[in-house]
Amino acid sequence: MSLSAIFILDSNGTVLISRDYRGDVKMEVVEEFLPLLNKHEDAGIATPVIHQNGISFAYITCNGLYVISVIKRNANIALTFTFMYKFIQIATQYFDKLEEESIRDNFVILYELLDEIVDFGYPQTTDSKILQTYIFQESYKLKRASSVPAVVTNVVSWRPEGIKYRRNELFIDVVESVNLSINSKGAILLNEVCGCVKMKVHLSGMPQLRLGLSEKVLLAINSHELGQDPTSFEDVKFHQCVQLSRISDKNIYFIPPDGDFELMSYRTSTDIKPLISVKSRVVQNSSSRIEYLVKVAAHFKTTSTANSVEVTLPVCQDVDSPVFKTSLGLATYAPEKSAVVWRIKYFPGGTENFMNAQFKLSSIKGEEKPDKTPIQVKFMIPYFTVSGLQIKFMKVIEKSNYKALTWVRYTTQNGEYLVSFN
Per the count of CB atoms within 10 A, which of 136, 221, 377, 378 is most buried? Predict the structure, then answer.
């Protein structure tokens, strides 16, 4: 990637911040951007990159602002957009929100950041934790260390030297979110799991970590398939600290950043039965009464329990006088949502529960039809993963030869979990 310049414009096209990195384009070229964008929009063309006279404008919008990278040479456009989103993330961590007012109040810091994270059009240090060690904010004024910290020039740029803890330990969280969509005929439109391995590291020195994952997971990462297993791992991404060349020997090697970070993320497409199924029926007993019948069943192993299960059932807007019957949990009417919220604190695997909600109709409109808004389900299942990913071991190697405690936790939770009325 090689940027010629970067600009931040307000919604009217006024330049708030600009930085010329290579001197190969005129800074007035940005005046062509908004007219070109309007021309494309009028023609019904939606594109994140606009070309004009050998110059490309790659842009993203953020809180009414345009963040624009001007490119004259052939560049990796995916890396360009990754850089721009990373810049927004850094700015957000400095002053909460990147908007016109925060830019005007903090333009000194923004210019310093743009100078630090890009050199002659090439990205450099983009780790906000490192940047905050020598570029920091106090009363909108920048104070900077007299010299560049060693971490910037160190081979391990994401971890400074000299870290010490009285108690050496690390925490590993495997979190999977289930996205499910089922239509009114019971057909599954979407059934996928988005997972990540998060870590909190409190280790002294410069430790080398060796993490062992389930063999089938590493096989999937290396071969992009799992043979006969119905679950396949896709879109696997690792933190920059991971030594990718050594993954093939069934271990993951890395020198971790200090504190919280995401070691890896992944997505799996699965054809297994939904963890929690929902069947619903609407019965109108008369022109003035309506009844909702709901059955939920847990299709995970009986040794697991779903916690904080919440089923949100949309109902007609003109209902009143609710009467509920549940086999487990508590159902309440939320008129501001036009919905019934059924909460179950503990839902054991392999069981099913029922809820009956009866309402009076405040106005007679003939036969009521089920709301097109789907039923939403929330849940959290500890000590359980859908993908089968498991942490087999974690070995910490450090020259002082200290012993570190390792804590591992597994959690499966809902993502966008939607079930239409049957």
Answer: 377
Answer whether residue 73 shows pLDDT above 50.
yes
Count how many Cα atoms sit within 13 Å of the Cα of residue 296 in the half-sphere of its side chain: 29
- Candidates 241, 187, 252; CA nearest to 218 is 252
- What pLDDT shows up at residue 395? 94
Beta strands in 255-318 (DSSP E): 259-269, 276-286, 289-298, 305-314
Count of residues making up the chain: 422
Cα 268 from Cα 80, distance rounded (Å): 27
Please give the model's pTM, rounded to 2 decimal places: 0.67
Q: Could you please state the CATH topology (level 3) that the domain comprising 276-382 is classified under.
A: Immunoglobulin-like (2.60.40)
5-153 and 169-272+386-419, same CATH topology:
no
pLDDT in tens, 291-314: 999 999 999 999 999 999 999 999
Q: What is the pLDDT of residues 235-245, one digit of tens each?
A: 888 998 998 87
74 vs 324, higher pLDDT? 324
- Those residues whose C-beta lies under 8 Å from the C-beta of residue 7, and which sit 6 or more positions away, are 15, 17, 18, 30, 33, 66, 67, 68, 70
Which among 175, 239, 249, 241 is positioned nearest to 212, based on CA atoms? 249
